[in-house]
Amino acid sequence: MKTMFAVAVCSLVMMSLIACSGKNKSYGEAYGSPEAQTGTEAPAGETFMDGPGLSLLPDVKPVPEGTEHHIRLDVTHKVIEVADGVKYRGWTFGDDIPGPTIHVKQGDKIIFTLTNRSDKMASFMAPMPHSIDFHAAMVNPVDKYRTILPGQTLTFEWTANYPGVFMYHCATAMVLQHLAAGMYGMTIVEPTGGYPTKVDREYALVQSEFYLKGEPESDGTYDTDMNAVEKKQPTYVAFNGKANRHLFEPLKAKPGERVRLYVVNAGPSDTSSFHVIGTIFDRVWIEGNPVNELRGMQTILLGASSGAIVEFTIPEKGKYVFVDHEFTDAHHGALGAIDASE
Ligand SMILES: [Cu+2]
Fold it and tell me: Is 82 helix (H, G, I), strand (E, B) or coil?
């Protein structure tokens, strides 16, 4: 009897150990990292980003080899074209709006450096304090997401515990203002062992809103209208930083191909009903994690800061418009296209 009891207890212990190790295998659960360091060693030159796996939208670079990556993004203040011929006084990560897409895999460690170079910009754009918040990270936000002054550099480490598509953004008060000015981007964390499907094409899309004053400044550029920001009345809603951008620069695919889109809605305040006209999402992975799978979806609803991976087949030759199906947003520029005409 005692032996049977001992065997039963041992089996239970073994089962829990297996369950625990399985859980740990799925999600790395690497917690704890050195305290962030603030310094003044600003990088020189005209490059504002550095590191493997970084790409400008809509491109996605292959996930880099190795498990530790040094990634650098600099903050700049820059005039950006947010609609055809409309120049906007934006604040950037990596000198672009949205910032570069960071591609890593689950379990990778990122040694990240942020330099606030807003003091080296055009004199009409005042230097500002800035910071960065990675939704893909699990760290002490008070430490890692601290605000740095113009001219300062911040370095900290984080590990990508969960697969998915995650937003990063400036977290300096007033956060709403820093988000409205363009300080956001996407991190893609590929799952351990890769995705369960193979695709022919992949692209990244970041949706966001721009709120411009009614009249330009004396140099013809537009500043942020904080009154419109607070009322959630965007002038433009854009995929990848410019209203209707991918109508004029369509994404390419061929009939019969399977396409994967990594989508993040950066907001700052609006939702997105993301839809591709003429096809159905074969798979939707909510937040980009294949465990959260939906099939046969017409639209995926993304609140501000939410993301998803959608996959679909191009059924035949044609032009497939993607849209925020909240049609006021589409009307304000949340439109693009996949050109599969040949
Ligand atoms: Cu900022």
Answer: strand
> Is the domain 201-340 a CATH 1.10.1840.10 member?
no
pLDDT (mean) for 22-30: 56
What is the CA(33)–ligand 1 centre distance, in A? 24
Q: Which three-class secondary structure state does DSSP give residue 297? A: strand
How far does residue 154's CA lie from ligand 1's centre (Å)? Answer: 13
Q: What are the sequence ranges of the domains in the chain?
A: 37-190, 201-340
Q: Identify the CATH number of the domain defined by range 37-190.
A: 2.60.40.420
Whole-angstrom Cα distance, residue 322 to residue 335? 6
Note the pTM of the prediction, 2 decimals: 0.91
**Mean of pLDDT over the chain:** 92
* C-alpha 146 to ligand 1 mean position (Å): 11
CA of residue 129 to ligand 1 center, whole Å: 6
Task: Report the pLDDT value the prediction gives residue 28, as an integer from 0 to 100.
Answer: 62
Q: How far apart are CA 93 and CA 73, in angstroms?
A: 6
Q: 58 CA distance to ligand 1 centroid (A)?
A: 23
Q: What's 91-127 look like in SS3?
A: EEECCECCCCEEEEECCCEEEEEEEECHHHCCCCCCC
Token readout for 146 is 């601290």
The CA 169 to ligand 1 mean position distance, Å, reads 8
